[in-house]
């Protein structure tokens, strides 16, 4: 370079006849005049024209032509004069736009559950995914790769996402191009955004129309800060790692990617920036990951301990994931942090960077698909699609690094750009579509049943069964539909009519109050029903007492959900003014139940539903199979047992059983058929119900097999003293015995005692229709399977008896002619073989459990029925008594 120094000293231009030759720089590279052979790579397009060392385009100055002189700002690779008015206007517009967006985010992130919508929540998560995809693409731009067209221009357009402040003319705003000053301004973005959240909530709380949704309290503000951090976590992580993000140059030196004038690990500016980055990493990503790990992994215990005060602070974690998968909210943030850190930990190795990215997305996709952790199913599918898109992009990135000739790098680049634009646009359009669907307010449920679970869980199931049996209705019952209580307000808003089962404490339950107030606020019709003529006198004093009974925690939960005390008062007094319809659920009369249910919601409701489903083929009525005959015995004096009987009747009829209640048979005992099954609901009051006891005697006389069923009602065994009184005939009064004899003619105390104790000699099966429908159906299938086995057993015994009769007939006809004997013997031999085979099959089936379950010696005794033993849903109900 001695020639360069000589020419520079003499002022000879390069290329002239008198100048001496020396190396010139290529476009895109820079070297100083003092060290012309120490070449740096320029990151700003068009800033370095090449040629003579120290050459810069468009008034650019500094190392690698990265800065503009004071009073100028960079735009499109050249320096433009700063105009203070224009800069202030631009910054003000950006600040105002950010303020509005962050305030809207705060309102939507803390939108009351009672006013929320599943569609809007899905739309918000899709927009969040779109932002994450854009930020991830901005991270791809920092990979150690020389991109071909059109990727440089595309990635340059995304650089504002991870914190490129040139869009706001930061040099004019700060009056300095110092890298430390610019980095300090970047690190203050998140605290400034938190201040905007506070100011936005403050402004909303001062506006009458927005005050209800302002969320101007600690939990809401903390949740919004977490939601904002989670949404832009990739950008915050990239910003915090800025001091460690360096780019390699041809001279072997590294310069800071965000400021090419700072040489990494070689100057005071970089030392300061590294210190600030280390502090930022601890303050932002590390502390946020630590908090989310603590909150998500301990979500259950912390919720129990702190209640709504905790859950409202971490809704940004729990709202996106299913209740049993809240921990995956932490792993989602951890994945995003790893995306930001990959270019740093694998700096200078493009292949390793692509491999780590691909491994990250593959691991997340496999984990996510195996658990389906997102709250809504559509989010699981979309997240998997986004992961597949990233994997395809990384495959294209690997193709760009291939040394094979014939690969059109421009075409590959356009494929990458097209794929990214398609995915982001699809996410945004899908979110807009979801919002449009929400505005159309699609109805999902025809009826919503509000009830107090402790007092009316079984009645709620009974009411749902009645309505579903009347028409093609979709009835919401929380125990069947919910994984989380968050769904309840959404379901209420998407319901045609709310039915309140009015019991004494239903209005005192916070969630029931939330359902009623939500329906009232959204003008959803409400029907009030009372069960079995149990009326609640809803006077003004009663309602005021109910309103006063809510605890501060209940009121806070309701207020966060957007329900005020005025809303509760208005909705409760409105419900009190509505007519009450009585549902006689104590009478398992199908026609009567359906008639009262239709009265509760109005005939016009059914006409409207039938009109909506006029093009839908109705389900055919299940035909009865005469040979599948079953009788149901229950305590007719107990309302709960009547509901259990109705539920069994409904489920058996759906499976084509020919079902009869005992009350329809006692008037005509002669129609009782031996080839049938008797299902008896065991309860405390059964031994005092004359109808049930009389029917038990009739069943015993006919030799009908018994199946006993135990509900959730506790059942206690009789003590030895009561059993002795039964055996002696002194347990039942003469009046009770007379009523029993009206059902079972010519019965006595001994026959009654044997019929009653026979119920305790067989297995009892659990049946709990007040639980989840899936569990209820599992229990019912066991009962039905047992009933079917009893019918099969009877059929096999009949065939065995018929075969024995045929054998006897054959032996009495042995003196007939040879031709007749030959004909009969052939036929009888075949029938006997079939009968013997069936008899053996019967013995094998009865020996599966080691002994005949109907033999008294075969049953296993428990120490006492007070501690019920269960094996696969089985209960032994044998009381302790001596054999009579």
TrEMBL record:
It comes from Polarella glacialis. Coiled coil: none annotated. This is TIR domain-containing protein. The keyword Cell membrane does not apply. InterPro entries: Toll_tir_struct_dom_sf. The chain crosses the membrane at residues 87-108, 120-142, 154-175, 187-208, 220-241, 271-297, 337-366, 378-399, 411-433. The lineage of its organism: Eukaryota, Sar, Alveolata, Dinophyceae, Suessiales. Keywords: Membrane, Transmembrane, Transmembrane helix.
């Amino acid at each position: 370079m001695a020639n360069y120094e000589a020419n520079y000293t003499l002022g000879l231009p390069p290329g002239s006849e008198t100048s001496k030759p020396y190396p010139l720089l290529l476009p895109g590279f820079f070297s100083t005049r003092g060290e012309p052979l120490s070449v740096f790579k320029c990151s700003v397009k068009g800033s370095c024209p090449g040629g003579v060392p120290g050459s810069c385009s468009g008034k650019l100055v500094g190392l690698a032509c990265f800065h503009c002189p004071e009073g100028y700002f960079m735009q499109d690779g050249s320096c433009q004069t700063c105009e203070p008015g224009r800069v202030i206007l631009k910054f003000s517009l950006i600040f105002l736009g950010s303020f509005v967006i962050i305030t809207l985010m705060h309102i939507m992130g803390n939108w009351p559950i009672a006013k929320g919508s599943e569609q809007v929540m899905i739309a918000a998560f899709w927009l969040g995914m779109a932002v994450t995809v854009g930020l991830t693409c901005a991270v791809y731009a920092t990979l150690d790769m020389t991109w071909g067209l059109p990727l440089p221009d595309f990635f340059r357009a995304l650089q504002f996402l991870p914190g490129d402040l040139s869009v706001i003319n930061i040099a004019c705003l700060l009056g300095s191009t110092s890298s430390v000053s610019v980095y300090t301004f970047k690190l203050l973005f998140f605290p400034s955004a938190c201040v905007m959240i506070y100011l936005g909530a403050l402004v909303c709380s001062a506006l009458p129309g927005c005050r209800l949704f302002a969320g101007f309290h600690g939990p809401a503000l903390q949740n919004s800060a977490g939601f904002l951090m989670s949404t832009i976590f990739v950008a915050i992580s990239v910003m915090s790692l800025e001091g460690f993000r360096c780019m390699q140059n041809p001279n072997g030196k590294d310069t800071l990617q965000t400021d090419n004038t700072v040489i990494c690990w070689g100057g005071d500016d970089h030392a300061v920036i590294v210190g600030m980055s280390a502090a930022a990493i601890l303050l932002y990503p590390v502390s946020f990951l630590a908090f989310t790990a603590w909150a998500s992994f301990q979500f259950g215990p912390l919720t129990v301990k702190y209640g709504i005060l905790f859950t409202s602070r971490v809704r940004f974690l729990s709202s996106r994931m299913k209740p049993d998968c809240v921990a995956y909210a932490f792993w989602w943030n951890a994945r995003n942090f790893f995306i930001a850190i990959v270019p740093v930990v694998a700096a200078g190795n493009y292949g390793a960077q692509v491999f780590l990215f691909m491994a990250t997305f593959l691991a997340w996709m496999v984990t996510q698909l195996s658990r389906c952790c997102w709250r809504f199913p559509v989010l699981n599918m979309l997240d998997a699609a986004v992961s597949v898109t990233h994997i395809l992009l990384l495959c294209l990135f690997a193709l760009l690094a291939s040394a094979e000739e014939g690969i059109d790098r421009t075409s590959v680049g356009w494929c990458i750009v097209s794929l990214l634009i398609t995915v982001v646009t699809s996410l945004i359009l899908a979110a807009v579509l979801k919002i449009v669907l929400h505005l159309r307010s699609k109805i999902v449920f025809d009826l919503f049943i509000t009830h107090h679970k402790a007092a009316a869980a079984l009645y709620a199931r009974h009411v749902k069964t009645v309505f579903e049996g009347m028409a093609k209705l979709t009835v919401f019952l929380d125990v069947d539909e919910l994984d989380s209580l968050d769904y309840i307000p959404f379901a209420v808003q998407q319901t045609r009519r709310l039915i309140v089962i009015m019991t004494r404490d239903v209005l005192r339950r916070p969630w029931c109050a939330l359902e009623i107030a939500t329906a009232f606020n959204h003008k959803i019709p409400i029907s009030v029903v009372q069960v079995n003529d149990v009326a609640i006198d809803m006077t003004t004093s009663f309602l005021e007492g109910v309103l006063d009974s809510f605890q501060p925690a209940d009121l806070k939960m309701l207020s966060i959900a957007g329900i005020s005390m005025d809303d509760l008062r208005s909705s409760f007094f409105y419900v009190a003014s509505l007519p009450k319809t009585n549902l006689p659920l104590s009478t398992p009369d199908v026609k009567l139940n359906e008639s009262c249910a239709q009265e509760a919601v109005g005939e016009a409701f059914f006409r409207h539903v039938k009109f909506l489903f006029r093009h839908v083929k109705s389900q055919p009525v299940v035909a009865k199979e005469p040979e599948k005959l079953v009788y149901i015995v229950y305590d007719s004096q107990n309302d709960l047992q009547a509901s259990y009987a109705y539920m069994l009747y409904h489920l058996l009829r759906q499976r084509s059983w020919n079902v009869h209640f005992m009350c329809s048979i006692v008037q005509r005992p002669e129609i009782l058929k031996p080839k049938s099954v008797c299902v008896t609901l065991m309860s405390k009051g059964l031994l005092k119900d004359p109808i049930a006891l009389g029917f038990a005697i009739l069943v015993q006389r006919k030799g009908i097999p018994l199946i006993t069923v135990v509900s959730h009602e506790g059942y206690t065994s009789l003590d030895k003293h009561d059993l002795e009184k039964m055996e002696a005939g002194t347990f039942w009064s003469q009046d009770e015995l007379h009523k029993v004899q009206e059902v079972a003619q010519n019965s006595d105390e001994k026959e009654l005692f044997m019929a009653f104790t026979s119920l305790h000699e067989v297995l009892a099966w659990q049946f709990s229709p007040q639980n989840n429908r899936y569990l209820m159906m599992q229990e019912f299938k066991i009962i039905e399977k047992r009933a079917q086995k009893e019918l099969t057993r009877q059929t096999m015994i009949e065939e065995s008896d018929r075969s024995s009769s045929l054998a006897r007939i054959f032996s009495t006809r042995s003196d007939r002619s040879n031709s007749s004997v030959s004909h009969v013997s052939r036929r009888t031999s075949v029938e006997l073989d079939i009968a013997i085979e069936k008899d053996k099959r019967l013995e094998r089936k009865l020996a599966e459990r080691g002994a005949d379950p109907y033999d008294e010696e075969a049953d296993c005794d428990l120490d006492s029925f007070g501690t019920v033993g269960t094996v696969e849903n089985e209960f032994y109900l044998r009381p302790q008594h001596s054999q009579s």
